[in-house]
Hints:
The protein has 242 residues and is α+β, with helices and mostly antiparallel strands.
Amino acid sequence: VIVHLIHLYRKDHDLIGSVARATSDLVGDFAITVIEASNPDTIVGARHGCPLIIGLGLDENYFASDAGALIALTSRFVILKDGDVAQITAEQFSIFNQELNEVKRKITTSNMTASNFSKEGYRHFMEKEIFEQPEVVRRAYGDYVTGAIKAALFEKSNASDLGEIKHIQICACGTSYYAALVAKLWIEHFTHIPTSVDIGSEYRYNTIAKQENSLFIAISQSGETADTLAALRKAKEQNYIG
Length: 242
């Protein structure tokens, strides 16, 4: 259906214009890339709700849904935002909104390595992750000890002091939801701050009264869980702390 819609607009527009107009007609979440047989050196991509990034290499550029797919090829990425339409060739890239006004997006450098996405001799990734736990815990605690976590997460917070927090709302899905339930017990035990935990797929559709000075925490193993991200967008509209 999407291909036919793009083809319809292609009669009056170039490829990127056709993709921009076609995707503005779509309802729902998507991330697409399009290539024409007559111009195989150019690829156009667009996203709404689903992740899409550009990987920047040396005389080569890529589209992917996740940086992990490209980490063996490049460590430099551009993360597209909802409504972005991008065009890449081997030498350059450009990004537009759906009105075809050019926009700028930040280039980020990842510190991940290819080893993060290989089994490294283990039978499967689950086994690898089990044996990695001591190092993962060490790195996580290291960030808390240095204050990096607080500086990174709360420097733009609308609370002048984390001591103002009166309630914590956590959203997660799947196994992250079970981790959130454990976190609720720890948080309430050590901080005495009332904490609520909801499944992302339910929170995003429920009418939940936000409490004053409430902190919102979203947990996702991949960082791209659709329902959790939708819950996070809803939380931003409700002006949570964090």
